[in-house]
């Protein structure tokens, strides 16, 4: 897959530099969301699991060919209840991907539903396979 390279050391360093637009809390753990990547002739699709993250608490940022996903989980003890024991830890989901020139960066689409972020990264027309017509000469 040529369009997306996931979490190289260079990408981690770039993600640290570009994190000025999205602040990460120091007192909460940072999780890497499990991600499936699919490819067709026309696009690359990413499916990222971010349970507990709503679309309001999600940032998808593309800067210098690095696509960074940051989702803040929110969990609040219901009113009139007191937390006695907790095993579920909340935090921040964060993952970065380097995007190649083969991706039409202006056409990227993101949809969040039920804690799953779906991204469509369309390939630029020059990166899509083309069928060449063959002429018959007799």
- Terminal residue distance: 41 Å
- CATH topology, by name, is Immunoglobulin-like
What quaternary form is this? single chain
Could you tell me the mean pLDDT?
Answer: 82
Total helices: the number is 1
> Taking Cα atoms only, what radius of gyration do you get, to the nearest Å?
19 Å
- Estimate nothing, just give the exact number of structural domains: 1
The total strand number stands at 9
Strand content: 35-45%
Secondary-structure element pattern, one letter each: EHEEEEEEEE
The amount of helix comes to under 10%
Question: pLDDT under 50 segments (min length 5)?
Answer: 6-21
Q: For the record, what CATH class applies?
A: Mainly Beta
Q: Which CATH-level-2 architecture? A: Sandwich
Instruction: Give a short account of the largest sheet.
Output: 5 strands, mixed
The dominant shape is elongated
Structural class: mainly beta
